[in-house]
Amino acid sequence: MDSPHKELYDKHILSTEQFEYLDKIKSGKIVSLYIELRTLLYLGVLLLSTGIGLMIYIHMENWGHLVLIIGLLTLEIGCVYYLSKHIPPYSNEAQKPPTPYFDYILLLAALVFISISSYVLIQYDLIESLIKWSSLLTSLLFFYVAFRFDHRGILSLAITAFAAFWGLQVSFTQWYHSDFVNLLSLYNTGIWVGALFALTGYGLHYKNIKSHFSFTFKSFGLLLFFGSIVSASFQSDYWVFYALVALISGISVAVNSWKKQEYLFFIMGILSSYITGTRLLFEILEDLPFELWLMYFMASTGGIVFMIERIIRNMKKNRQL
Amino acid sequence: MIAYNPEELKKLEIMDEAHSWYKSGVIDDDQWSIVAQEFSSNLYHPPIWLRVLLFIATIIGVNAGMGLFASTFLFNTDSDNAVRVLLALAGISYLLILEFGLIKSKQHYKSGVSEAFLFLGLGQLIITFYWDDDISLFLVFILLIVGVFIALRYLNLIGVIIAAGAFAYLIFDTLYSLGGFAQAIIPMVFVTLFGILYMISQYAQKSFKIPFYYKNHFILIDIILLILTYLGGNYLVVRELSIGMMGLDLAPGEDIPFAFVFYFLTSVIPLIYLLIGLRKKNIILIRTGVLILFASVITFKYYYSSGHTEFTLTLAGSVVLGLAIWALNYLKTMKHGYTREQLLSDKWSNLNAESILVSSTMGGNASIEEPMNDVDLGGGEFGGGGAGDQY
Q1: Cβ(A226)–Cβ(A272) below 8 Å
Q2: What is the mean predicted confidence (pLDDT) over B86-92?
Q3: Phi/psi at B338 (nearest 5 deg)?
C-alpha cells in the first residue's frame, strides 16, 4: 500500500502542491531540526544556570562579592537588553517568538534572576525573614513576565513559586518522591490554592485571554486540588464533608473535561471521585461481606469501561470525534 | 499473523497523518473533513489518556472478578496445583476474550482494555508454569518468543522491548557461562553483533516492502540496536561489569585490559552516529548520537573529574548554548536539506511538556527551603552570642 500522502493525492484530495511539499518531508529530502535545536538551547540554559548557581554557592567566600554580583548583573542586563530589543507587542493570543532564541534568553534571565535574589538574601542574612515574601514577589513578577512575553515555562515557574509561598510543593515529574505526608497537614491550603489555579485556568479559557495558558493552570491546579482534597477525606475529622465535595467536584470536572476532550483532567476527576465515593460506601456499608465488595469493584470498573466505550462509539457515529 | 484488519489500520494511519497536516496548516478545513469522512475506521482506539484509565480499570475489575471466582471455588484449598490450574484457565480465557470478544467482534485496537487482558493472560500463564522455579534461561527464551509474538500479532511495541532485552540477555548469559576467553570478548561480540544487526535492519527496510503497520517496530528496533552497540563498547559499562560480575580486581592506578579500545569506542561511536546521521539525514541516528554523546561525556567525567562541577556545568552550558545558537544561525536558510523551522506538528501543544520540565527543575519550594535550615542554625548561634553579652 502507498504512503498516506500518495494515496490521498491519487484520490484527488491533496493538490499537487501539497503533495510535493509533503513528499519532500516524507522522503527525507527536507529534515527539520526544530526539536533537536530547541532541546539543545534548553539544555544549555539549564546547564549554564545550574553551573552559575553552584559557582555562587561554592565561591561566595573566596571571590569577593563584588566580582560575583557584577558578573551576574552583567549577564542579567545583557539578557534584559536583548529581550527589550526584540519585545513583541502584547497580545491575548499565542504568539510566535520574535527570534528563535527569545524564549530561551527569557528563561535564562528568569533563572539568573532567581540566582541573584537568593544571593542577596543569603548575603544579607535575610533568608529567614524574607524567603516567603521573596517567593511571592518572584511569582508575581514571573506571572507578569509570562503574560507579557507569552512564555509557558515562566508561567509554571510562577505557579510553583506561588504555591511555595503557601508552603506547598507541586511537581509533576517528582511525584514519586514528593512528600505526601507533608501535604496532609496543609490540605486546606492546598485545596484553596489548587482551586484558585484551576478556576483561573477555566476563567482564562472562558474570557479568551491567553487561553493556551489554561492547560498549565488547570494541570497544576487540579492536581493540587484533588491531591489535597482526597488526602483530606482520609485524614480530616470532617472527612465526610471533604469526601462529598471531592465526589461532586470530581464528577463535574470529569463531565466538563469530557466535553472539551481534555482526557487528562477527565482521569483526575474520575479517579478522585471513585476513590472518595468508594470510601463513603465503605463507611455506610461497613458490614458487607468481602465477596460483595469484590462484586462492587467488578461492577464499578466494568461500568466505567463499558460507559466510555459506548459514548465513544456514539460520538464516532455522529462524527464528533 | 496480524490480529487486525490491515485496511482499517491503514485508514487509522491516514487519519493520524492528515490530522497532523491539518494541525500544522498544510491542508484546510474542507480537505480535513473529507479525509475524516472517507477514512473513518471502525477500530475502537481511544485517545491515550483514556487508554490509561481503561487499562487501570480493567486490571482492577478483572482481578476482583478473579478473586471472587477463587474465593467461591478454592476457599479451603491448600493445594498449589488447584491454584495453578485456575490461574492457567483464567490466563487462557483472558487471551480468548482478547482475541474473540474484543478484537474480532468489537474491533478493539490498543484500547487499554485489550492490553490489560493481553498482559494479565500472558502473565498468569507464565506464573503457572514457573510456579516455584528460579528464573531460568528457558524463561528468558519464552519471553523472547512471547515478545516477538505480541509485537507481530498485536503490534505491541512493549513486546519489541521485551524481545530485545531477552535476546541481549541470552547472548550475554551464554558467553558469560562459557567463561574464560568467551567472557573476555563479550564487549566485542556486543559491538559487532548489534552493529551488524543494525545494518541488516537498515538493509531489510530498504530492500523489502515492510508492511506499514510494522514501521514503528523498526524505528524502535533501530534505536535499541544502536544503543546496545554503544553500550557494548562503553568504558563505564565494561569496567563496572568486569569488576562486578567477572571478579576483576583492579589495584589503584591499574586499568582494565585493553582500556584504550574502550576509550576509543566510547568517544568515537557517538561521533560516527552523528556524522553518518547528518550525511544520510537519518534523524534516528542523529538523535541517538546526541543522546549517547552526553552518555560519553558523563562516562569520562565519572573517572576523570576535575572536582569542580560548577566550572564543568558552566562550561558545558556555554558550549551547548553556543553550538545551538550557531546551528540556528547557520540554518537560517535551508542548507543541505536541513531546516530550523518546524515542518509538521501540532503548532504549540508540544510546548506543554517543556513548560512542565522547566518547573520541575525548580522542584517547588524544596530547593528554597534547604538553605533556610542552614541559616536557622546560624541564627541560633548568633542569638546565643547575644545572650552571652548580656550576662
Answers
A1: yes
A2: 89
A3: -100, 140
Rounded CA gap, B327 and A199, in Å?
42
From the number of C-beta atoms within 10 Å of its C-beta (0-12, 13-18, 19+), residue B81 rates as exposed
Q: Which residues contact A39 (CB under 8 A, 6 or more apart)?
A: none
Q: Identify the CA nearest to B222 among candidates B167, B158, B288.
A: B288
The grid coordinates listed for B284 are 534516528
Q: Please state, as a whole number, how many other Cβ atoms lie within 10 Å of the Cβ of residue B49.
A: 18
Chain-centroid distance of CA A306 in Å reads: 31
Q: Give the gyration radius of chain B's Cα atoms.
A: 28
Establish if A13 touches chain B: CB-CB under 8 angstroms.
Answer: yes
- The three-point CA angle B210-B211-B214 to 5° equals 90
Q: Is the pLDDT of residue B168 over 90?
A: yes
pLDDT at B311: 78
| pLDDT (tens digit per residue) in B313-337 | 888 888 888 888 888 888 877 777 7
pLDDT digits (tens, 9 = 90+) for A197-248: 999 999 998 888 888 888 889 988 999 899 889 888 888 778 888 999 999 9
b/e sequence A229-239, b meaning 16+ C-beta within 10 Å: bbbbbeebeeb
CB B59 within 8 A of CB A297: no
Of B299, B171, B180, nearest to B233 by C-alpha is B299
**What would the pLDDT profile of A143-188 be if each residue is shown by its tens digit?**
999 988 888 888 988 988 888 888 776 554 444 444 544 555 678 8
Which of 130-169 (B) contact A at CB < 8 A? none
Residue B44, CA distances (Å) to A298, B97, B103 in order? 22, 16, 9
Phi, psi of B64 (to 5 degrees): -65, -45
Judging by beta carbons within 10 Å of its beta carbon (0-12, 13-18, 19+), is residue B314 exposed, middle or buried?
buried
CB of A60 within 8 Å of a chain B CB? The answer is no
Q: To the nearest whole angstrom, how far is the Cα of A205 from the nearest Cα of chain B?
A: 15
Contact of B286 with B278, CB cutoff 8 Å:
yes
Taking the CA of residue A68 as centre, how many other CA atoms within 13 Å lie in the half-sphere pointing to its CB? Answer: 22
CA distance B318 to chain A (A): 6
Would you say B201 and B220 are in contact if contact means Cβ atoms under 8 Å apart? Answer: no
Angstrom distance (rounded) from CA B356 to CA B376? 32
The partner residues of B44 in beta bridges, in order of sequence, read B108
Of A224, A245, A57, A256, the residue nearest A156 (C-alpha): A224
ipTM above 0.90, yes or no: no
Q: What are phi and psi of A156, to 5 degrees?
A: -75, -30
Contact A172, B360 (CB under 8 A): yes
Answering whether pTM is above 0.90, one says no
d(CA A116, CA A104): 18
Residues of A in contact with B49 (CB under 8 A): 263-264, 266-267
The residues pairing with A204 across neighbouring beta strands, listed in sequence order, are: none
Using a CB-CB distance cutoff of 8 angstroms, which residues of chain A are in contact with residue B319? 44
DSSP helix/strand/coil, B272: helix
Which of A114, A127, A154 is the closest to B371 by Cβ?
A127
Environment class of residue A82 by beta-carbon count within 10 Å: exposed (0-12), middle (13-18) or buried (19+)?
Answer: middle
Tell me which chain B residue has its CA closest to the CA of residue A100.
Answer: B328
CB-based contacts of A83: which residues, under 8 Å, 6+ apart? A102, A105, A106, A109, A149
CA distances from B21 to B25, B35, B215, B351 (A): 6, 11, 19, 18
